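Human: I'm a chemist; would you kindly supply sequence and structure tokens for a protein?

Assistant:
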Amino acid sequence: MEFTKKDLNKTLRVKQEDQIKNRKRFRVDANWKTLWRLAVDIANKLSWKGNTYYSDFWDWWDFVLVENVDKISVTWKKLEEKVYYSYSWYKWNVKEITLKNLLIKNPSKALWFAVRWMLAKNKLRDSRMKRLKMVVWTTTKYDNFKPLNLYK
């Protein structure tokens, strides 16, 4: 499809039925992949940045399934220095946890935070994060998912 000068002023409208019909499902094996590089790839797939019709205010409804989340690798310096804070708005109630302790306690939460911070800060971020599924093992309730492999 070639574009001419007349096409530059037209706005592309995609029907929601076409979006639902063309949903893609990606399966990612996180076995010994670096946390931050994996989060960049997942965020790009959730926001559909590889598409020619990319727009930050449209949600394209692609799904990403991440397997073996417990085997994510992180550099040794980040394990000790990266700290996550949570504050409940009560006086003196700031809680902190290091990345090392978070990976031991809940490895999928560390990946969830990394992907969330890499997505655009707009109204679509929560709906994109709902389409991210994380699993510790490879055989799951998502076996009928029929996805494309993100890494080949």
